[in-house]
Write a structure and sequence with these properties.
There is one protein chain. With 433 residues, this protein is an alpha/beta fold. The protein folds into 2 domains: 192 residues, Rossmann fold, CATH 3.40.50; 222 residues, Rossmann fold (3-Layer(aba) Sandwich). The protein has a 6-stranded parallel sheet, with helices on both faces. It has a 6-stranded parallel sheet with strand order 11-10-9-12-13-14. Helix 9 crosses helix 11, helix 9 runs parallel beside helix 12 and helix 11 crosses helix 12. The mean pLDDT is 96.
C-alpha cells in the first residue's frame, strides 16, 4: 500500500517507520521544513530506542520519504493517517485546529476511495466533523476511521510491532478491510468498533492507568502515617486476579505527554457534557497537588531546603526517553530554586533538552552520576534509569555529606534501605517508614 502519515512528532515518526518496515510506500508529511530536512538525513529529533536505525533502513530502501508537499504525499495514498498534535485548549478540552488544518490541506489531493484515519487523540464525535470538512474540499469518494495509538515512550517501536491490540474505529466495511490489511504483519487481536468508541478507548486506557497511579499514591500517604509498607500492600492485593500486581507505581505524580493531558481533557469534556462531579476531575487535582505536597513534607525531614546542596537524578519523565513533558523534574527543580537550594542534576541523555527548554533554571548539570551526588546534602532519585538504580549504595553514601538524605521517589532501593541507614544516611521512600 501507499501510506501518508501527517505529523512527524513522536507518534508520526514511529508509525511511519514501522509501516515502511512492512514494505509499504510511506510518506511522512509535515509543514516544518527544518524537521523534514533533519528526518530526511536520518536524524530523529527525539530519543527513542531502535527508531533511528529503522528510519535509516527504510530511507535507504526507498520505502520511506519525508516531505512537506501534500500533493506528493497524498495524491496516490490508499490510507492517510492524521498524527498531528492536539494540545489542550484554554477550556481544557482538546484543541483540534491542527487536525482540521491537515484535513483542509489533504482533502483536495485525495484519490478515490482513500481512507482517512485519525490517529491523533481526539474526542468522540470528531470523525463527523472531519467528514463534513473533507466533503467541502473534494468530490471523490472517501472513508474515515479512528486508529488510536497506545504507545509507551521508551518502547514505542516494540509497542507498534507487537501491540496488545489494534483498535479500528470505522463504520463501513471498505475502511475496515483496508485497515485490517494494513495491520496484517502485526500479530495482535484486531478490535473493530465505532469511531466514537475507538476514541473513548484511547482516553479510557490512559485515564485508568493514571487512576491506578493516583490511587496507589493516596494509599502511600496512609502507609507513611500508619506504619504499613506500600510494597507489602501491593504484594498483598496483587494476588487477587481482579487487581493484579502490575502497574502500581507510587511516586511523585504521573507525568509525560499523555496521562496529564488526556486526564485533563477527559475531565474538561466531562464538565462540558454536564458531568461536573466526574472522578477524573479529582484525579487531576490530586496529581497536580502531589509534587509540592511531597516536597514540603521532605523539607521537614531534611531541615528545610535553603542553602542545601541537592542532587536531582533523572530529568526525563521516565527512563529511555528524553521527553520532559510533565516530568517530575519540571516541578521539583523550580520548587528547589524557589527555596534557595543549590541544585545539581544528572540524566543520561536529557541534559541538552533541559538546557534548551528551561534556560532559566539555576542548575549545575553534571555528566556523571557519582560526581553529581558528591558533596550533596540531599539526593533525589526521580527517574529509574538503569544507570541510576544500580549504583553501589556504599559509594552513594560515601560521596554525600555526613548525615545526608537519599530520597527515593521510585522505591528502587527500598529493599536495601537499611543499608543506607547503616552508613548514616537517612533513606526516604514513598509509602514506607
Amino acid at each position: 500500500m501507499t501510506i501518508t502519515v501527517i505529523g512527524t512528532g513522536f507518534v508520526g515518526v514511529v508509525s511511519s517507520a514501522v509501516l515502511a518496515s512492512f514494505g509499504n510506500r510511506v510518506y511522512g508529511l509535515d509543514i516544518d521544513v527544518k524537521k523534514i530536512a533533519s528526518l530526511t538525513s536520518g536524524t530523529i529529533p527525539f530519543f527513542e530506542p531502535g527508531l533511528e536505525e529503522m528510519v535509516k533502513n527504510s530511507l535507504a530502501k526507498g520505502d520511506l520519504t519525508f516531505t512537506t508537499s501534500y500533493q506528493e504525499a497524498v495524491s496516490d495514498s490508499d490510507v492517510v493517517i492524521i498524527a498531528v498534535g492536539t494540545p489542550s485548549a484554554p477550556d481544557g478540552q482538546a484543541d483540534l485546529k491542527f487536525v482540521f488544518a491537515a484535513i483542509e490541506s489533504l482533502a483536495p489531493h485525495l484519490k478515490n476511495d482513500a481512507v482517512v484515519a485519525i490517529k491523533s487523540t481526539v474526542p468522540p464525535g470528531t470523525n463527523a466533523k472531519v467528514e463534513k470538512l473533507i466533503t467541502n474540499h473534494t468530490q471523490v469518494t472517501f472513508h474515515t476511521a479512528s486508529l488510536p495509538e497506545f504507545l509507551k515512550e521508551g518502547s514505542a517501536v516494540q509497542d507498534t510491532l507487537k501491540p496488545d491490540r489494534v483498535v479500528i474505529g470505522a463504520k463501513d466495511a471498505f475502511a475496515i478491510d483496508i485497515l485490517k490489511e494494513l495491520h496484517k504483519p502485526i500479530v495482535a487481536p484486531v478490535v473493530v468498533m465505532s469511531p466514537e468508541s475507538a476514541q473513548m478507548c484511547k482516553y479510557a486506557a490512559n485515564a485508568y492507568l493514571a487512576t491506578r497511579i493516583t490511587f496507589i499514591n493516596q494509599l502511600s500517604n496512609l502507609c507513611e502515617v500508619n506504619g504499613a509498607s506500600i510494597l507489602e500492600v501491593i504484594e498483598g492485593i496483587g494476588y487477587d486476579r481482579r487487581v493484579g500486581q502490575h502497574y502500581w507505581y507510587p511516586g511523585l505524580a504521573y507525568g509525560g505527554s499523555c496521562f496529564p493531558k488526556d486526564v485533563k481533557e477527559l475531565a474538561a469534556y466531562s464538565k462540558a457534557i454536564g458531568q461536573d462531579g466526574n472522578l477524573l476531575v479529582k484525579i487531576d487535582e490530586l496529581n497536580e497537588q502531589r509534587p509540592k505536597e511531597l516536597m514540603d513534607k521532605y523539607a521537614e525531614k531534611v531541615g528545610g531546603w535553603e542553602n542545601k546542596v541537592v542532587t536531582v537524578l533523572g530529568l526525563s519523565f521516565k527512563p529511555n526517553t528524553d521527553d520532559m513533558r510533565e516530568a517530575p523534574s519540571t516541578k521539583v527543580v523550580p520548587y528547589l530554586n524557589s527555596k534557595n537550594a543549590r541544585v545539581k542534576a544528572y540524566d543520561p541523555i536529557t541534559i541538552p533538552v533541559a538546557q534548551k527548554l528551561y534556560p532559566s533554571w539555576n542548575v549545575e548539570y553534571i555528566s556523571d552520576p557519582i560526581q553529581a551526588i558528591s558533596g550533596s546534602d540531599v539526593t533525589l532519585l526521580l527517574v529509574e534509569w538503569p544507570t541510576l538504580i544500580s549504583l553501589p549504595i556504599e559509594t552513594i553514601c560515601s560521596q554525600m555529606k555526613p548525615g545526608a538524605t537519599f530520597i527515593d521517589t521510585r522505591n528502587q532501593y527500598a529493599e536495601k534501605r537499611q543499608e543506607f541507614r547503616s552508613f548514616g544516611v537517612q533513606y526516604i521512600g514513598v509509602g514506607l517508614l
